[in-house]
Design brief:
Layout: H1 3-55, E1 84-89, E2 94-99, E3 102-110, E4 114-116, E5 123-125, E6 130-133, E7 138-144, E8 149-158, E9 163-167, H2 178-181, E10 194-196, H3 198-207, E11 213-217
Parallel strand pairs: 1-11, 9-10
Antiparallel strand pairs: 1-2, 2-3, 3-10, 4-5, 6-11, 7-8, 8-9
């Protein structure tokens, strides 16, 4: 076998060794790119998902201020709402205004305190739960002598003046009870009515149509 043939065979051998050695690395590299692409895709999608989650409460005023509206945007124009109703969530201290299945405004609220039900032994709010309808009784202020407590901007939703939406409570001198007002949106505290911030209660008194469905849960 002459020297040229030997060199040719040796060259082919070296080429085969190089291909075998590099092959696994090429395979590993080709598999790594799709994984990297998936991870990058997930990282890019996360901010969008978080933005969507937070957008539903992005207009809520923080910290809570009972002197001001619950949201920083205007109240809804009910003339443009097709299916208006209200949901009061006693446990979460929120009152939701709906157009069909869509929340169009959220109000901080405070419902009745919870007491142990003697029949069931479970804690139960003194605010009645169920489905009710806004009533015609409403006004700018009232004072309950027996409770030594009043409020401004009220509208009735049960028993024609017994259960109301109204502002945070006032004292006998007409000034707001700031200790009780501080509970708004944070915990329960009323005798059964639904307390709202001063502007929210005023909007309710002026704009809540008689007959509006009100669901109280919790």
């Amino acid at each position: 076998m002459n020297l040229r043939v030997k060199h040719w065979i040796y060259g082919i051998f070296c080429l085969l060794v190089a291909i075998i050695a590099v092959g696994p690395e090429l395979h590993a590299a080709s598999n790594a790119h799709p994984k990297k692409a998936v991870v990058e895709s997930q990282v890019k999608e996360k901010p969008t998902q978080e933005k969507n989650v937070n957008s539903s409460e992005s207009h809520m005023r923080t910290p809570i201020d009972w002197h001001k509206s619950s949201e920083t945007i205007p109240y809804p124009d009910l003339s443009k709402v097709k299916d208006f109703w209200i949901k009061v969530d006693l446990k979460n201290n929120r009152t939701y205004l709906y157009d069909g299945s869509k929340i169009i405004y959220t109000m901080y609220s405070t419902g009745g305190i919870y007491k142990k039900d003697p029949k069931t032994g479970k804690m139960k709010s003194v605010t009645p739960t169920g489905t009710f309808y806004a009533q015609q009784e409403r006004g700018d202020s009232f004072f309950n002598q027996s409770l030594k407590e009043g409020a401004n901007y009220y509208v009735s939703w049960k028993n024609h003046g017994e259960y109301l939406f109204h502002s945070v409570p006032t004292k006998a001198d007409g000034k707001y009870n700031e200790q009780e007002a501080a509970k708004l949106g944070k915990t329960q505290g009323s005798h059964g009515c639904i307390r709202l911030s001063v502007p929210d209660a005023q909007w309710m008194e002026k704009n809540l149509p008689v007959g509006t469905k009100i669901e109280v849960v919790g």
